[in-house]
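Please, structure for the following, as tokens.
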Amino acid sequence: MSQRLNRRARLLSGAAFGAVALMAVSSAQAQTADAAVQAAEAQPADAQPTEVGEIVVTGIRRAIEASISAKANNTSIVEVISAEDIGKLPDVSIAESLARLPGVTSQRLDGRSQAISIRGLGPDFTTALLNGRELVTTGDNRGVEFDQFPSELLGSVVVYKTPDAALVGQGLAGTVDLRTVRPLAYGRQAMAVNYRHEWNDIGALNSGTTDSGDRYTISYIDQFADDTIGVALGYAHMSSPYQSERFNSWGYPNYSDGNLLTGGVKPYVMSSELERDGYMGVLEWRPNDRFHSTIDAFYSEFKNTQVLRGIEFPLAWGGLAESPGRSDTVLGGCQITNNVPTPNVCRPGPSLRPGYTVEDGLIVAGTWDNIKGVVRNDLNKRDSNITAIGWNTEFVANDDWTLGLDVNYSKVEREDLILETNAGTGRNINGALDSLGFELTDDGVTRFTSQLNYADPSLILLTSPQGWGGDVIPEGQAGYMNTPSITDEIKAVRLTANRALHQSPFSSIDFGFNYSERTKEFINDQYYLGVPGGGDLAVPAEFLLEPTDLGYLGISEVLSYDALALVNSGALNLIRNPNADVAAGNWDVTEKVSTAYIRANIDHTLFGLPLTGNVGMQFVYTDQQGHGFEAQQIGVGVAAVEEITGGKEYLEILPSSNFILEVGDDMFARFSLSRTLARPRMDDMRAGRNFSFNPGNNNENATPEQNSPWGGGGGNPELMPYIANVADLSFEKYFANRRGYVSLAGFYRDLESYVYTYNRIFDFSGYPTGGVTPVINEGIISTPENGNGGWIRGVEFSVSAPFEIFHPVLEGFGGLFSASQTESEVQPDPANPPTPMPGLSETVVNGTLYYERFGFSSRISARYRSDYLGEVAGFGNGRTLRSVAAETVVDAQIGYEFQSGPLEGLSVLAQVNNLTDEPFKTFENGDERRTIDYQSYGRTFAVGVNYRF
């Protein structure tokens, strides 16, 4: 076991408790403060005081005021989103709402905000909770995909930017707590139904798909038995289509003249439909003031279907193909024919005609000859479901002691289908070739003019146009099918106790113990698709669809067919991928985590000023185990596989402190010191490894560092967590009866460690070589390792104000604005220069203007983030880090609520997302002309009605 209570942890612990001691000495007279004042300050943040003669506000302003109140009352530095009303969070998804908060931003996936970053740290460093409990995740890692959770079923979301000792499952960047409504606290009967119809202005880009969908929700809250029993029920359905026009470049190599040019392209149009059914239930029982028990349950079924059709053009990186096994000459087939296309002999490589156009070292226009396109009809499907159940009971034993028990369980089951099918003019060497004129647009997208009709079913056949996959299927595959699945399960129990204190700088002390077991399993099934008997196959007529328009690319149409129905019919053979890397890709990881904590809650004065907050410490003991397979490629299509396990145990001690000093009327200074951790990616903790022996490198030039016949890679089940020491400082001023505020905050995170990919020399003695005697037994293996750390620092400014404070004529108008500036540096490998943190945008700006009065409401919001290093899907659907261009996303909404008469309670709305049709773009080597991905999503419109009984 590794115990890492180092000097910094001791210093943080001592500083926290030493500061409290100093406060106690400097303000001992505060122990005799007026009891009534103390009672008011001790009132829980979610208590609902009786208000007499107050004007009740609803909708946007109500949500803002509730969020501001929750922010002011929390002892941590937090941001809060509150529902405008039952069943109405302000955006169509949780991630969209989160991305508007100060210091928070999101990365769009297929046009939708899905994963978030807090204060410059990527999704890997953020933990998500549901009602205070750690959540399972549908992805391969820990990052939560927030579109799994219907916004309509949530009452609020709290983002903790600083931890405290009682926050179990906290993240290194922050913690997002999704909260369902509590019916007894809600305090009244309510029922609401919502309906929205949405559509995309691009239209349905693929045959057999739709461009419109529906969302509807029903929510019910009530109290019974003299308000001792509360019930909340909710159901939300979504069928949401989304479209995109996609361009993808393979990269930009150097041409023979030294200029850069496009290596190849893979453009698509994508039509998708996201279907989700979410169910929520809460049962509360509070028979008296001493006993309170709550059962809550959440279930979500999530289906995402993506149809992608397009064409892939190998260009500068598209090689030639020659007849294999020729014995009549030592020359290649293309040398014999002088690069003239000849059936069964030579398919010459792509050739760039003279007379091309060069701008600043990049070839931007010209003509390619000898091009063999690959027509793609692909399908991605994801079916997943989440189940989360929790039972929480609180018992007030006496005036001083309160005890609590929480038991919870959550599970995810996910199945994916990633299907690729290939078609072209003929198999590998054979088939017609094309000449393509090309021109790069200002966005870096390449437009083409072609000579062939890629929509002709007699010309475009199911085959392997480029011979890809020929090591398993002779002369290549007609497609590929990947069917990974994930199971993620968490079981946890928590015991808590609170001891009220008297005549003390501390109002109370919290004790707690949490035990959780988490197991995540990844099953990696992959198949080659082949034409029975080899050769080419015309697409059967029953699967043909209307051709797909690629006009944005300059290609008028491509052949389209129902790829899944084709495969399910048995028209293509499925051959399991036998290679070692696929076998080694199966893994499971188990974590058993025991967390004990103590937290002292401050309610005191410092130099006559009210002081609140807390100091505490967590003791986190982790026992982690990884299981997988060690696989070695010992021949073409042959792998040797053995089971392998590994793991580690360690203890981390995490002190934390939060101090809130009220320096003036509704003016607060907040200061926090803490030590936090983030566990490594679960796929990095896999035990599996794959090795290979390449006889071609088995010669006198081989060294362990270079040209070794040996190589390999895999996971590392002994990885330790990321550790950071964190300091936060914030100044907040609330005004207009806490309907507005202004805040300035700064933070610094000292990262003690960072996980990176490390290439190390490994001794392969005894590993099989297929009968070949190795000249050396050492080579390079790549694995995740704990390296040195770095730092991240930044400042945040935010303001929220009703404009009536400037002039009464502006009543109903208001605005929110925030901006953050962040910089970072990590250097896990001393041999390489430092780099910025992945996922970090140095500048993030959010703004919202709204109007709400006399039943009318309108809102326009914009969010900007500067360019950053983002995680995107790469080759084989693996994760790849790429530079993502800066973007500004604008959304707008208008509505009207009937406030009297027979239609009272009815409201109508219209909204548009991505108003300016902002694209998503990635690029390479810091040059935005060298576009890798360019995706245009169009605008999504919605109209709807809400009715509250």
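Residues 1-57, 325-330 have pLDDT under 50 and may be disordered. Helices lie at 7-26, 35-41, 59-73, 94-98, 183-186, 333-336, 563-568, 580-583.
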